[in-house]
Amino acid sequence: MNSSIADRLRQWGNRILANPLLRRVVKNSAYLFSATGLSAAVGMLQGILTARLLGVETFGILGAITVFTSVINRFASFRMSELVVRYVGEFEEQGKPKQAAALFKGAAVVEMGASLIAFALIWALAPFGARWLAKDVQTTAWFTLYGWIVIANLIAESSTGLLQIFDRFRRMAWLQVAGSLVTLLFIGFAYLYRSGLAGVLWAYILGKSLGALGFTLAALREARARWGTHWWRTPLNLLRPKFGELARFAISTNISASLSLINKDSELLWISFLRNPLETGYYKLALSLINIVQMPVSPLPQATYAELSREMARGNWAGVRTLLRQGSLLAGAYTFVAALGLGLLGKPLIRYLYTEPYLPAYPALMILLVGFLVANTFYWHRPALLAIGRAEFPAQVNFVLAILKIGGIFWLVPRFGYLANAALLSASYLLGISVSVVVFALTLRRRVSQSVAQSAL
Q1: pTM for this predicted structure
Q2: CA–CA separation, 114 vs 68, rounded Å?
């Protein structure tokens, strides 16, 4: 009987991977997954060393500092990786390399400006972060120090987008691993020499900065290989016919990303602000353990977006449907098994790796698993909407979710703490993704009908 089940699973897997589109996505994701898997393993070791070194409360302060910088940087960002993938891919498909080069140049220039604005905001708001998030004004210098990581990421998003659209996933994978290993090395030194929060922050800054610079140099090398030594002299006026469309896309993705900061990416800041660093430490660990569930799925949106953009430009609607349906089956099956494993082994894992004081993180982990099961299964909801031309819709969904979630946060988190925050995050995934998937399905059906009607003429 076991043999029969194994045979059926093998046949099912072979049938799904027979789809050349999904096979290409899986291949590209495999490079990122290899890197993500190694990085996750390295990151878990980093987390164990850091948690043991700092203790729950200081571990929570570390989370507040890193997320504070990340949120401000992303608030100022225009998600240039998505713009580059969408339009460099389109120009390359149309045989317009000069416009593609101009697009990358323009994206890099805009991102540089946004990064400098983010850096200035971090310095200006560091005293607020120290007083209201870390609950200790003496940590102002640490908030300021960590802000320098934004300068290292000056054009990291544009660089990532360029490497994605030209299928340089293997290169991205190795760069990601290298950055993680450097960070682990420095955290190892911090742990051995008991250098506390300062040592951990310097380890993060050095490791993440080297990784970001590696992505930038790889992208500039790719641009030179594709468009020649003087690609950067390409005039931006070549993009004039598309200025309005490009601006709408960039603004829509920026608004969507900014609202997403409220809905999904600023969890630790809300808990730090409304509760205390101790509960932030519990929640930070729960989010870290969720990486086990996200690990193989997190590269899929990057790889899928590039393929969706190409296939939709070609009008291959049947391929798009098959890719998304089979991708959901693979991602959902893995997530269910991983969630079951964490449910059974979560407590002993926390107790023996992170020590007994971190056990209150387990209930938050269980609540988060509900939302991430849905998020992973429909991992493609946002890339699919962007690729089909509905870039504004994620922003609209996030706006509504932001209003609902902010109300829930101020009503529930002061009373019930970090567990209420976990429940609100899971609920936002359930509601937002369900609506996005339905809207994409309706839009795809309409595009298919239009294509059939045009073919009949």
Answers
A1: 0.84
A2: 16
